[in-house]
Structure formats: C-alpha cells, structure tokens
Design a protein that fits this description.
The chain is α+β, with helices and mostly antiparallel strands and 170 residues long. It has 2 domains: 26 residues; 97 residues, no CATH class. The chain is 28% helix and 18% strand. It is built from 3 helices and 6 strands, in the order H-E-E-E-H-E-E-E-H. Strands 3-2-1-4-5-6 form a 6-stranded antiparallel sheet, with helices on one face. The longest helix is centred in the first third of the chain and has 24 residues. The protein is elongated.
Length: 170
Amino acid sequence: MSSQSLPSESLPTDSGLHPASTRRVSDRLMLWIMAGLLFVVGAVSLARWNEQVSRHPVPDVRPVAERQLLFLDGVNGDVRVVDAASGAPVGHFARGEGSFVRGVIRSLTRARSQQAVLPEQPFTLQQYPGGRLILSDPRTGERIELNAFGTTNAGVFVSFFGSTATATGH
C-alpha cells in the first residue's frame, strides 16, 4: 500500500496566522460590544460609589399620615410591629410570613449596623398625598420608597396606619 500525499492547498489568510474563514465578528461590531461593556461597568461603578441607583427627593408637602414603628424579633422567628409611642401592636408576622416587610427592615438595619446605631430605635412610616409611602430611618437618613414595590407590598405597610389610610392615599 502506498500512501499518496495530496498537494497542500493554501488557505487565504488576513495576517498569515489564521484563516480568514474563522472570523465570525466584524471589527466594528466588536468595538460596539466593548463600548457597551465599558458603559455598563462605568454605570454600575458609579451606582456603587454613590451607594444608590437613583434617589427621589422627600416630598415638599406634609405627610397625611405618620407613625413611628418598632419591628421586634421574637424568639420563635416571628416579627411584631409595634407603635413606638403607645406600645400598641399594629402588625404580626409568624415565621415564614411577611417576607417583604422582613426584607425592607433587613435593608434598613444593615445600614444601622454599618453606622453603629442602636437597633431598638423606631423607624418612621409616612404617607403623602397621592399615596406616596416612605419608610425611613431618622438615625441613618436611609429611606425606602415602598410604592416602587407595587401596591400589594406597599399595602402591607399602609395597614400599619390602621383604617385611617389607604393604599392609594384617598
């Protein structure tokens, strides 16, 4: 058996290193992709540097309802919501319930621990005309726009006012 060698065919190349047929993305497209990635990295870095994505100013009007609230952890995993002035209970979440409330409070208490603020101090829940609902921590200056999470989630916090407030502010 004899082996025959086939004549080698030369493949066209751009630079002599790689065959031209392996190029799948044009140079112009690659530059757009790199520019987009740099923009995203820059935007995320700026947001992290400011520790916020966007911040809405506090309304210029007086709130229509306001309450100082304490969120107390129970030994069995429950969370009690208490009016800070009167000590009256305004809400209760058993273990596994109230995940939105727990998440919001966890976010605010994380800021407290970073600034060495005592956790037993109350948060301020305010409802403004038009239904805007803000939970804030007067000790750290942090605040959360609760309406941004939908009317169902904001409605849980509206219920802490009792029957005097509604989810839409009417």
